[in-house]
Predict the 3D structure of the following.
Amino acid sequence: MAKGKAEPPEREVLRIAALLSEGDQELGGVELRRALESAGIDPNQATGRFHEAAQRLAERVHRAGQTVPLSLQQAIAATDPSAVVPHAELAKPDAALAFAEHWLDRFLAPFALPGSFETSRAYRKAGNLAEHDQQDLDRLAAELHERAHRNTQGEVPDWPALVSAELLKRFGLDCGRRLSEVAGELGLEVRYREAESYEGALLRVPGSRLGYVVLNSRIKEESRRRFTLAHEIGHHVLPGQQELSMPCLAGRIENWQRSLDPAERSANRFAAEILMPRQAIGQWLEVEPSQDAIQSIAAACDTSLSSSAVRLMALTGHPAAVVWSQEGRVRWYTPSASLVRWVRKGRLHEQTLASRWMRGESLPKEPRAVPAEAWFFEKGLNPGAQVWESAIGLPAYGAVLSLLVLREPIANE
């Protein structure tokens, strides 16, 4: 039988990638690796062979006087053995940084190689085991899972900071104003739908870099739309979130509560890093935090007051905190790194400016000294300790955003 016309280089690369990924579609990246190893196949060696095959294909295209397709160049870069960082090494800052530099290549290539850093099952269940044996193995697997969780706590790299820094380096500090363009480069198409119950959703096919970001067209504020888009891009590119597919409700976007799901908190942090890069707001980090600084950051970056305030707290060196109060109660707060006191949640103290606004009183333009006990737990406070509060009322939300600044120690700590 005569040999047919040679396949286009892109199709051949995709065919090779498909062959490498054949098998149990339910396997995660770690489990796939173990399955290959149990079959006597070294995953690193298989990736290396694919890398060499792609290089040979590129050489043939080049010798034929043709331009090597970008997709082939990206396939070679994505499978470069020198770019692979073992999981055990990721706890080291330098290794995590090196990994982040290569991570985005997965989303700029025409296909995505398997990759997951979530804890996987310690074994695969079999249907021919006695019930008591299966139960015993289940208990041991749960014990192993718990030990692994304890051993890795505190060692997970700061992916929102690392990946956002790499994205800013590749697409520019102003990429937060070109999010639709950036999304397209990462394989995402932005769609709008008139939704009732969600603000944003990420739809994608497992094993592929392509997907849709669906935004609720009912979102009125441009800053909210941009933050939601950045949040969904975060879900797409952050390590460990490739299996997530749940739509994001309004309560998850720009939510800074510590009780929020870790994946949602990471996506919110990623969005803040992209929309408000440190380099773009540096002038407001050198002085005492103020409501003027918060409003200036919001105006410069086209972001909301709450996200601008939280970003300021993440970067300032002053002891301070922002507090969101609603319906007469403290809903959440975010402290700066140098503030070691806990803000008291629950009903607002009557001496706070926030409480006065809730009672219909006007707010002063300048910060006012209020008793520290009005915001913080009384235990350990110095007698007569004060904190400087400034506040902005947000009638549309029935909320008030307070900024607390410590100008002197309030406790002997």
